[in-house]
Amino acid sequence: MTGVLPVVLSPRGLPEFPDPNRADDRGLVAVGGSLAPEWLLTAYAHGIFPWYDQGLPPLWWSPNPRAVLELSTLHVSRSMRRVLAKQRFSVTYDRAFEDVMRACGEEREEGTWILPEMLRAYVRLHELGHAHSFEVWNGDRLVGGLYGVHLGGLFAAESMFHRETNASKVALIVAVRTVFAAGIRLFDVQFLTPHLASLGAHTIPRAEYLRRLASARNAAVSLTALEPIV
User: Which of 65, 75, 91, 123 is most enclosed, with most CB atoms within 10 A?
Assistant: First the structure.
């Protein structure tokens, strides 16, 4: 696909995206298209994800640089090691995907991009085995969690939330440990925030991310019925 970016995509066409290397650093690649599973999976396979506001068509992004987390650089502070050792929280996997996603979209001052159509689309991906969640519980109360998309050796963490201090950190630490142990090669967190940086996330150039993705996406990695590694 050639032309000036972003391109306009028809929802009735095939899920085809332009080369994200041609986008500027903000990374807007395309506008329109569909949130059907084949569109989402094609996008993630090419380093692109949807992110947009109410009243807009889907906007597809591939920013430069890209934030990732490595198992080797995952930073678990002394205080977080104590939190994990106390076992105040329990962590489950794929027990409450929709609840986690809904919670990720609640009570954000900047508003939410987890619109009803996004919720339906990612719940469908979960039903098809391409999206997963880690849930953090205090007793029987859901207090934190994380969800993301799985494609081959890629795990693209989409969002996380907490209702108690440290619960989202627990979700992320456990998710990183668990999916890398299962064979994941690339753990994408999209944008670097101070919270993610404190846990060891860092940025790499988009071109490097896309090279690593091209190697990882075809790996035969199963994330079925994982046991969370705390």
Answer: 91
